[in-house]
């Protein structure tokens, strides 16, 4: 009888961990999409030979920071205005990524490379909260499963972002779809900040609608900016 119970206990343990791995994989696939779009935006102006390298460097740096984020997640939740600060950083990055700059072509490759890597790390860290919390929850407190989930993010981010960067080169409007994702995430972070208390002021309906309105505005701007080469930020 004890052998039978032990057998079922082992199968239960295996199923518990297997289901956790499946959940983590799905979470990574779903929640890494917007992060891959950000990386694609950051590396789109790099030579193709440097794009995958920049994506890898940025993703690895971001994952290392995510590990720290996961370890200190409970503490970070107590810091006031952390979500709003992340949202403000993302708004600035969104503006920088869609800003048309005629001097961009004169920046040396190495400077552009490291600038892209830093942009990836900062943007990913600002957006990583949902991914980290999702992975940590699915891992049921198992640190090895958390590490697995974070490591799984790397190939998804690198392969997904380089593919998106190529598409952005052919279809400039995709740049603004990526920027719209960033805008939605950034503005949502302001409403999610409990210390800021914006949701109490606007109500839940507007707290949901405003990020969508802001992202739609970015899309309309994108349609206008891509219609004529001279349009857009200078």
From TrEMBL:
The chain crosses the membrane at residues 18-43, 55-75, 81-98, 144-165, 174-192, 204-224. InterPro entries: Integral_membrane_TerC, Integral_membrane_YjbE. GO terms for cellular component: membrane. It is found in: Membrane. Its main location: membrane. It is a multi-pass membrane protein. Keywords: Membrane, Transmembrane, Transmembrane helix. It holds the Pfam family TerC. Belongs to the TerC family. This is TerC family protein. It comes from Formimonas warabiya.
């Amino acid at each position: 009888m004890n052998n039978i119970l032990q057998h079922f206990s082992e199968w239960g343990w295996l199923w518990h961990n297997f289901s956790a791995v499946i959940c983590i994989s799905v979470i990574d696939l779903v929640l890494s999409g917007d992060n891959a779009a950000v990386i694609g935006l950051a590396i789109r102006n790099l030579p193709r030979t440097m794009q995958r390298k920049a994506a890898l460097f940025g993703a690895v740096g971001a994952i290392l920071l995510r590990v720290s984020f996961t370890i200190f997640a409970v503490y970070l939740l107590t810091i006031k205005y952390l979500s709003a600060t992340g949202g403000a950083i993302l708004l600035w990055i969104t503006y920088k990524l869609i800003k048309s700059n005629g001097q961009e072509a004169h920046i040396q490759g190495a400077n552009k490379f490291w600038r892209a890597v830093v942009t990836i790390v900062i943007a990913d860290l600002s957006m990583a909260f949902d991914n980290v919390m999702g992975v940590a929850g699915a891992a049921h407190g198992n640190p090895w499963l958390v590490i697995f989930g974070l490591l799984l993010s790397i190939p998804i981010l690198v392969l997904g972002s380089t593919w998106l960067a190529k598409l952005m080169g052919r279809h400039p409007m995709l740049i603004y779809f990526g920027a719209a994702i960033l805008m939605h995430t950034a503005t949502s972070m302001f409403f999610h900040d409990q210390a800021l208390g914006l949701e109490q002021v606007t109500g839940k309906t507007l707290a949901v609608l405003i990020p969508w309105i802001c992202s739609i505005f970015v899309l309309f701007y994108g349609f206008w900016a891509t219609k004529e080469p001279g349009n857009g930020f200078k």
